[in-house]
């Protein structure tokens, strides 16, 4: 915007036969106004450029509309799931709830039996989408204690 204003000042001064425009004048005000509008047009053209061919710089709406037009159906979010191993002398019942350090809640899908002092169960996030994803080795904490089972 600064370059547009400076170039506009030079052009107006040249057309009026002046060395430089006065710092406060109608011409200065008009120049700033028109330069701002030109900058808005440049920004809009840049946005259009990003929408023409869908890419990482495109708006989500553009990507979705293009995918729909091309016949690509958007997949719905799924629930993250995976194995969790407990140190326990007791089986872990289905529907046992636990929480990650990011406050995401997970629930045991099927109960697990004790093998060598450990119980491995499959858990599923209660919230669909990437929010439920955890790195391997992440620690979960039981929301309610279970007899003979560590809380994490």
UniProtKB/TrEMBL annotation:
<feature type="domain" description="Baseplate protein J-like barrel">
    <location>
        <begin position="84"/>
        <end position="149"/>
    </location>
</feature>
<dbReference type="InterPro" id="IPR006949">
    <property type="entry name" value="Barrel_Baseplate_J-like"/>
</dbReference>
<dbReference type="InterPro" id="IPR052399">
    <property type="entry name" value="Phage_Baseplate_Assmbl_Protein"/>
</dbReference>
<protein>
    <submittedName>
        <fullName>Phage baseplate protein</fullName>
    </submittedName>
</protein>
<dbReference type="Pfam" id="PF04865">
    <property type="entry name" value="Baseplate_J"/>
</dbReference>
